[in-house]
Amino acid sequence: MRTAKRGLVVLALASLFGWQAGEVVTPSTASAASFAGPSQAGKIKVRTAHGSSLGQARAGARTGRAAAGNQLLYNGGRVANVPQVYLSFWGPEWASAQPARDYLNSFFSAVGGSDWLASTTQYCSGQLDPPMSSCQGRVVQPITNPVGQLKGSWNDPTAVSYSSPMETCGLPVADLGDCDVMMAAARAAAHFGTLPQGAVIMVLTPSGHSQPGFASGGWCAYHWAIPVGGPLQPSGAAFAYLPFQPDAGGSCGANSVNQGPRGVYDGFSIIGGHEYAEAITDPYPALLYTSDAA
């Protein structure tokens, strides 16, 4: 559905990490599928890398870039014009996982103002001129890329579990654990206080405690939003869910950039960065940018 923008995000990630354009190896370039969900909040998942060999992963990356010429059409919704990110480390087990927390805090601390995130500034909101495929019009509000976008980092001590019925979150359709992740996002919002427009909450779970379906179900992460008019607050808040990527190995990015121990956390930056960029530009996928070639 959104391979056109996905290719741009991958190229920007390559710029941030100094990859060669012909050697981008990341599962985030594989196609994502939209899943049924509440109005204005369709969940978008990032697929795992298909196949076990490096060559197959590279082939997927080239496919993602080839689709980058497709036009994206704006559908009138909001974007995160001044993006800000808040990290919620859900589960007491994070207390003994300091290296992973340090890596994630460091990555998101460096996101703002980077060449990587500059790829999102080509998107905007406002009153665009037809055919709504470029940021030209009477009132145009572009996405900005300020430094210092990490505004908070918190360890949510709530035990991780996946048993809440979807009705608790006002979800007409849901996978096992969707409501629990959404409630974790709501707890984080309550902890951080009134969130500004443009805020994105990243919900992260520790090793061995990922939502059912992670990796085994063919996905690495997703972004979504708390349903408007539902029982959870703040209504409409954008969030992304990032499981413990090293548990999936190379299927979710491990050692895609760095070899050996240095590459264990590669998936956190590849997949986490991908989800953050998409949550900025498409917090409500049904209302924002979609490909005319979808």
What does this structure look like?
- This protein is α/β, with parallel strands linked by helices and 294 residues long.
- The protein has one domain (3-291).
- 25% of the residues lie in helices and 18% in strands.
- The protein is built from five helices and eleven strands.
- The strands form three sheets. The chain has a seven-stranded mixed sheet with strand order 1-2-9-10-8-4-7, with helices on both faces. A two-stranded antiparallel sheet has the order 3-11. Strands 5-6 form a two-stranded antiparallel sheet.
- A hairpin with an 8-residue loop joins strand 5 and strand 6 (137-142).
- Helix 1 packs across helix 2.
- The longest helix is centred in the C-terminal third of the chain and has 16 residues, at 266-281.
- It starts with a helix and ends with a strand.
- The model is unreliable at 1-41 and 50-68 (pLDDT under 50).
Name some characteristics of this structure.
294 residues; alpha/beta; two-stranded antiparallel ribbon; globular; 11 strands; 7-stranded mixed β-sheet; disordered N terminus; 5 helices; single chain
- The residue-averaged pLDDT reads 79
- Count the E strands: 11
Shape summary: globular
**Order of helical and strand elements:** HEEHEEHEEEHEEEHE
Largest β-sheet summary: 7 strands, mixed
Q: What share of the residues does DSSP label as strand, in percent? A: 15-25%
Radius of gyration: 18 Å
When the domains are counted, the total is 1
The number of helical elements comes to: 5
Strand order of the largest sheet: 1-2-9-10-8-4-7
Distance between the termini: 5 Å
What would you call the structural class?
Answer: alpha/beta
Helix content: 10-25%
Low-confidence stretches: 1-41, 50-68
